[in-house]
Amino acid sequence: MKLEDFLKTKGTNENLAQLIMLFSKQATDIKAGFLSAQGAADTKNVYGETQMALDKRADEILIAALKESKLVSWIATEEQPDIIEVKDAVNPFGVTIDPLDGSSLIDVNLSVGTIVGIYPGHVLELGNTMLGALYILYGPLTTLTYTTGSGVHEFVMGEDGNFTLMQENLTIPEGKIYAPGALRKDYLPYHKQFIEQLESEGYKLRFSGSFVADVHQILHKGGMFSYPAFEGKENGKLRLLFEGTPLGKLVTEAGGAVSNGNINLLDVKPVAVSDRTPIYIGGRKEIALIESIKRS
Ligand code: P6P
Q1: What residue ranges in the chain does DSSP mark as E strands?
Q2: From first to last of its 296 residues, what are the pLDDT tens digits of the chain?
Q3: In the structure, which protein residues have their CB atom closer than 6 angstroms to any atom of ligand 1?
Q4: Phi-psi sector, 268: left (phi>0), alpha (psi -120 to 50), beta
Q5: Residue identifier of the C-alpha nearest atom 1 of ligand 1
Q6: Is-contact 278 227, C-beta < 8 A?
Q7: What is the number of other CB atoms lying within 10 angstroms of the CB of residue 129?
Q8: Which residue, judged by its Cα, is nearest atom 10 of ligand 1?
């Protein structure tokens, strides 16, 4: 079944369905850039990180499509310093976008992706208020995984650029994969104890350097991804709005959980679009373990 038809059969809000279809239609253009726009641009993002030419290209494609569609009132992207307001938009929706998470991996041919959070209004709100979330993963296959609060569903892109249903009502299984971000030498004591506990239970390390690809693997095989607070960086590295809450919403809808080590990340109110946060995301068992270790 095609994505458009599936959205209809699930009775998805028409405006939300149009927005999800809009994002699905950008995948072909974004992928087309992978061959041409390699390497780094001569600019840095608001985090001081060198922007890859592809980050900027994906960002421009998505912002232009959203502005032209007038489907959203607010656009926040990881590549833009400020939130963009779309005048005379037809919906009050806000979107948060990591246009190309893991983009530095393209020149070594590893999987990268676009991460999107969808809010009923402005984006500086609790993750728990999200209307939905999706990611497009550019790997051996190009897949789109989304939720609008009624299950998590995965689609694969065909030669014609259309997405067809691959798996409905995806749920995270029990599994022993762990994706440990940050440097071991910089682990804080409670995090070190957590990681050593998983390793003692035989968890296998799978870490690619692309959050969206690593979380996709854990969504399908179980386990946990962490990019923790570490020595000198109590907020860790990853972004709350662009990485933590959208994928946290999806994994939670699939029966998993997401935390900053203390509380559910979807209960954390952002202060600014650039907020960083420690992230633990995956199976409920693993997330309960880190929260209990951190409390003790
Ligand atoms: P490190 C990519 O830059 C990213 O934001 C995430 O996709 C990924 O999990 C993390 O950073 C990798 O960080 O420090 O291992 O390079």
Answers
A1: 40-44, 50-52, 74-77, 84-85, 94-101, 112-119, 132-138, 142-147, 152-157, 163-167, 177-180, 204-205, 224-227, 257-259, 279-282
A2: 999 999 999 999 999 999 999 999 999 999 998 887 666 667 777 777 766 788 899 999 999 999 999 999 999 999 999 999 999 999 999 999 999 999 889 889 999 999 999 999 999 999 999 999 999 999 999 999 999 999 999 999 999 999 999 999 999 999 999 999 999 999 999 999 999 999 999 999 999 999 999 999 999 999 999 999 999 999 999 999 999 999 999 999 999 999 999 999 999 999 999 999 999 999 999 999 999 999 99
A3: 101-102, 181, 209-211, 227, 237-238
A4: beta
A5: 209
A6: yes
A7: 14
A8: 209
Q: Span 177-295: which CATH code?
A: 3.40.190.80
Question: Among 2.160.20.10, 3.30.540.10, 3.40.50.300, 3.40.50.970, what is the CATH number of 3-167?
Answer: 3.30.540.10
> Letter for the amino acid at 71?
L
Quote the ligand 1 centre to 102 CA distance (angstroms): 6
pTM over 0.85: yes
Q: What are phi and psi of 157, to 5 degrees?
A: -85, 130
Q: In whole angstroms, what is the distance from residue 4 CA to residue 56 CA?
A: 28
Question: In the beta sheet, which residues pair with residue 134?
Answer: 116, 146
Residue among 114, 227, 276, 277 to mutate when testing ligand 1 (max atoms within 8 A of CB): 227
